[in-house]
Design goal:
Mean pLDDT: 79
Number of strands: 25
Radius of gyration: 22 Å
Distance between the termini: 25 Å
Structural class: alpha+beta
Largest sheet: 6 strands, mixed, barrel
CATH topology of the largest domain: Jelly Rolls
Low-confidence stretches: 33-46, 61-106
Strand order of the largest sheet: 3-8-11-12-10-9
Shape: globular
Length: 382
């Protein structure tokens, strides 16, 4: 958002003519400059803007959103979190950056050939007999056990006796995401470059178990009370998670040094060979590949699971970590011409449905990188 656009929207708000989306847009833009040195350059006097906005805008958003906040009570949220709660998408034209070194010269981006596509709903379903089904928009798939419209996969809920039950594999490639509803009603949102192994049916009274072989997934588990007390467990390569009625996120990528489990609601037990830990809402466990230790942290859960709502939320994140996120979603390779640039930290809320070049341009406006170069599906940050 440009300064002129912000001023127009602020005047509209002060005259009582903005809607909820515009209120949240203002809040998000305001918060993006809370600690920025660019505040005066972008908006003018910080005190002046703050006095105009905070006295009324927070209450306006709270009153409109009180019925739809899902992840956390309003009294625990900052203004920025309230603005994000309904998945508002704001692309900053200026963003908060934390670093000690600034690049002064800004060069024009070089684009030799840009055939980078925005990620979309797509997956590969592997059946028990080894058959492979490509799932994507416009391709329907239906059997007696499952159906898909190309954007989601839904298994039939059935009453089963204790027999050998086949497993399916759902693989999400780079540049993809997908939603699957398991036979017990558990809902799973899967992020790019992920794979889930799960049974096509469950037996009430028996433990329900799935395995996140790699990648990231958000689980909304059907409670055990609906399945004769059946527990729900999720295995990863280094840990087990036992669910006690909950919503949680697991990030277990093969190219990352740790596995992260973030609890949104309910309770889970995270365990490995040597440790068992109980997570409370808004806590995250970190299991290091090297030490095999589980550490517990308090986190902002919305930031951790924003990908499910179509957002990239980067809170003081190094560019090397941001590059991994973008690489998975846009199916590209990103390199840094200067290794020091990979440590630059960026703060922003970006839309996953934007072209990658727009996101790169936004990061470039921070002036902590010179430029970027795109050659087919390879990007070099300069």
């Amino acid at each position: 958002m440009k300064k002129e656009e912000f001023s127009v929207l602020l005047d509209k708000y002060l005259s009582g003519k903005t809607n909820l989306e515009e209120n949240k847009l203002l809040l998000n833009f305001f918060e993006s400059f809370q600690t920025s040195n660019d505040w005066n350059e972008a908006l003018g006097s910080k005190d002046e803007v703050e006095n105009k906005m905070l006295t009324r805008l927070q209450d306006a958003v709270k009153s409109d959103e009180v019925q739809i906040i899902h992840f956390q009570p309003l009294y625990k949220r900052t203004i920025f979190r309230i603005a994000l709660a309904a998945s508002v998408v704001v692309l900053f034209s200026l963003s908060v950056v934390f670093n000690t070194k600034e690049v002064k010269n800004v060069n024009t981006p070089i684009v030799v050939k840009n055939n980078i596509m925005i990620g979309k709903d797509k997956a590969i379903l592997t059946l028990e007999d080894g058959s492979v089904i490509a799932l994507e928009k416009g391709k329907a798939y239906t059997t007696k056990n499952v159906k898909s419209n190309g954007e989601k996969l839904v298994y039939n809920s059935t009453d089963n006796v204790k027999t050998e039950i086949a497993n399916n594999f759902l693989t999400i490639p780079r540049g993809g995401q997908f939603y699957v509803q398991l036979a017990d009603g558990t809902r799973v949102w899967m992020n790019s470059e992920s794979q889930l192994k799960y049974p096509i049916a469950f037996v009430d009274g028996e433990t329900r178990q799935v395995e996140l072989l790699y990648g990231e997934a958000y689980f909304e588990v059907s409670p055990s009370t609906a399945h004769k007390g059946s527990r729900f467990k999720v295995k990863t390569r280094m840990q087990n998670i036992e669910v006690i009625g909950t919503e949680f996120n697991i990030k277990a990528y093969k190219d990352e040094p740790s596995i992260y489990t973030t609890l949104v609601e309910g309770k889970v037990q995270v365990s490995n060979a040597s440790t068992k830990s109980i997570l409370a809402p808004s806590q995250q466990s970190k299991l290091s590949n090297n030490t095999n230790r589980i550490e517990i942290y308090d986190v902002d859960t919305y930031n951790e699971v924003s990908w499910r709502k179509g957002l990239f939320v980067f809170k003081g994140m190094p560019l090397k970590n941001i590059a991994k996120v973008l690489s998975r979603w846009y199916d590209v390779d990103i390199e840094f011409a200067n290794p020091e640039q990979s440590a630059v930290k960026f703060n922003g809320v970006l839309n996953k449905n934007q072209n990658l070049e727009e996101i790169l341009t936004t990061i470039k406006t921070t002036k902590f990188i010179n430029a970027y170069e795109i050659k087919n599906k390879k990007i070099i940050i300069k």
